[in-house]
Amino acid sequence: MHQYLVIQDIVVILLVSLPIIFLFRKIHLPSIVGFLIAGMIIGPFGFKLITQLESVEMMAEIGIILLLFTIGLEVSFTQLIRLKKFLLLAGGLQITLTIVFSTVIFYLLRIPLNQAIFFGMLVSLSSTVIVLKLLSDSSELEAPQGKISLGILIFQDLVIVPMFLALPVLGSAGELNLTDILLKLALAFGTVGLLLLGAKFLMAKIMYQLANLRMRDAFMIGILLILLGTAYITHAMGLSFALGAFIAGLILAESDYNFQIIADIQPLRDAFNSIFFVSIGLLLNIQFVIDFPVKILVLTLSIILLKGLIVVLIVLFMKYPLRIAIVTGLIVAQIGEFSFVLAQAGGNFGLIASDNYNAFLASSIFTMILTPFLFKLAPHLGFKSAEIGKQKSEITSAEKELTGHVIVAGFGLNGKNLTHVLKETGISYVVVELNPDTVLEEKKKGEKIIFGDISKVEILHRTNIEKAKVLVFAISDPATTRRSLSLAKQLNPNIYTVVRTRYVNEIDELAKLGADVIIPEEFETSLEIFRKVLEKYHIPLNIIMKQVAIIRNESYKLLRKDEKEPTSFIHLDEILAAGITETYFVNDDNPFIEKELSEINLRAETDATIIAIVRDGKTITNPSGKEKLLAHDTLVITGNHVSVDKAIWYLNGDKDE
Length: 657
Fold this sequence. Notes:
globular; Na+/H+ antiporter like fold; 30 helices; Rossmann fold; alpha/beta; 4 domains
C-alpha cells in the first residue's frame, strides 16, 4: 500500500485546497497564504495527515519547473525595454544592496562568509506570485509602485540564473582553486550558451512542425518534451532542473506559439503550484517555532525591515515621493518562493545547517503570510508619512495666475489625450505627474506639468486648486484617488471632479467622497456596445443618448443591480412600434436606377413610404409615382422600424430578406 500513499497525499492536498481558494477569495486574500497555513496544519508537525514528504516534494519540484518555465515565456524583450529603468536601476540596486547588507550582518553574527553570502541571496528574493496577485487585484500594476515592483521582480527572476550557477562555487569555497571555479563557471555558461544557440536555429522549425501536425495532444507532448528535456540537460551538467525550465521558457518566448503554450501549461502550473506552497507549509517545524518564538519573530521582522528600508531608499533615490517609497518597500519585503528552491539546492552543497534552515523556513513563511496585511496597511502608512515629511514647494507666478483651469492628475494615455484637447480648445490646465522622467521630458516640450503627489495638500495648493474649475483623475491608483478626492473637496467644495476607475465596486465609495462624475472602464465599454446595438435598430440618437445619460446619472445602477428599475428607462418596444424617418443614399450600382417609383412599388412591398428625394442639393417633396430614381439621390423614407428595415434591404436588392 505504500506506493499508493502519494495518491492519498494528493487527495488530502486537493481536498484542503478547494475550500481554501473559496474562503480566501471571499476575504480578499491570496490563496497562497491559505496553502502555507494548510501545509502547517496537515503536515507531519501538525495533524500528521501527510507524513511522507518525498513524493510531495517531487510534485512541488514539478510546480517550480512549470512556474519558472512560464516566467521565462512571459519575460519578453519588449517588456524588459519598457521597464528598463525600474528593471536595471531599482532591481539591480535592490538585489545588490540586500545581498551586501545581509552578508555583512550574517558575517558579524559569526556565520562563515560563503554561507553569509548565500543567506543574503535567499533574503534578496521576493514572491513574484504573491506581489503580482495583490497588485493585479487592486488595479495598481500601472501605478508607480506597481511598475517599480514589477521591475524589481523581473530582475529577481532573471538573477536566479546566476544565483544557481554560484551555488557550486560557494559550496566549495574552501576546496576549489581559481582554475576549478573558472572551469565550473565556463561549463555552466557554456551549457546555457549552447542551448540558446541551438534553439535559435532549430526551435522555429521544431515548433512549426509541431503546430503543423494540428493535433493538440502532439503539440502539448512536444512542449513538455522541450521543457523537461532542457531541464534534464541542465541537471545533467550540474545545474538545476528549474534553471533548465527557465531557459526553455526563454527559448520559446520569442516563438509565434508562446501564447498558446502559456494557455496549455497554465492549468498544470496552477495545480502544481498549490502543491508547492502546501509543501512549504508541510516543511515548517511548528515545534521549532514554539521552542524559539523570539528568534523567529526577530528574524521575520528584521527581514521585512531590512528589505523594506532598502527599497524605500532606492525609490527615494529615483526621486519618487516618500509615500510611493513606503508602499513599494512593504509590497516586496517578503521572502520569495524561489528562495525555498534555492535553499534546498544550497543544502546539497552544505551551505545551510538544519537549525538555520528551520529558522529561515519559519521566518520566510511568516513574511509571506504577513504580506497581504502589510499591503493593505501600506497606503495608510504612506499617507501618514507624507503628512509628517511635508515639503514646501515654491509656487511660480504662472501657477498663481491659474484660474478656472483644469487639474489633470496623471500623464498616461488618458491624461495626454485630455491635455491635447484642452490645448486645442484654449482651456488652461496644469498636470500633476509622479514619474520624474516624464516630468523632465514633457517640461522640455513646454508642457504645463509639475512633479508631485496629488494626494498631498502642498501639491494641491501648488495647482491653485482653490481657483480651479475641474479636477480629472487619470491615474491607476485607487488609494491615492480616494485620498486626493477627499482633500480636493475640502480645499475647494465647488470643484467639479471626474474620476476614472477600472472597477464598478469603487463607484459607491467615490460617490460618497464627492466625485461628480465616475467613469468605470467596465461599464463604459458596456454603454458603447449598448449604443451601437440600438443604432442598428434605428433608435433615434436623442433617445439613445437619453438612456445613456440616465444610466450614468444613476451611477450605473441599472447595470449593477440584478433587479432593474423599469420606471427610469424608456421601453424600447414602445419606440420600435413608433414611426421613424431614415435616409437612404442611391449608389451607382443600385438595381433600381432609372426606374419609376411606381415600378419600384416600395410601399406595397415593405409598408414604408418615400416622402422626399434630395437631388443635387434640392428637395423633391411627396414625389409622384412617375419620378425616376437616379444615382446619388438621397431618399427620405418613413415607416415603423420593421418596414424601414425591409425598405433598405429591398432597395439594396435583397428581396429575399
